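INFO batch 0412 | record 1 of 1 | parsing
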Amino acid sequence: MKELISTFIIAVLPIYIASFTLYMVRALRGPTVPDTVLAIDAMTFDLAAFLVILAIFFESPILVATAIVLALWIYSLDIYVAKYLEAREMGE
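INFO prediction complete | emitting tokens
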């Protein structure tokens, strides 16, 4: 089983690197704030998914908890940014 997971990680790693590169370009050169936020969201959710894959490979449940916390944190960031873009004020 571990051999299949390591083969999967080796096959998926170039795709993750390419997507991270594209997300980073969009985050740095995004013409608007929503483009930048969307790129950071996608990058973070991909990182959380990759942490789950690594948790299965290393048999470490703490990485799953880290991925859940990371996903919840980026979701709360989405809510605050959407609120700011809608009302142009922070708080409450």
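INFO post-check: The chain has one domain: 2-87.
INFO record closed
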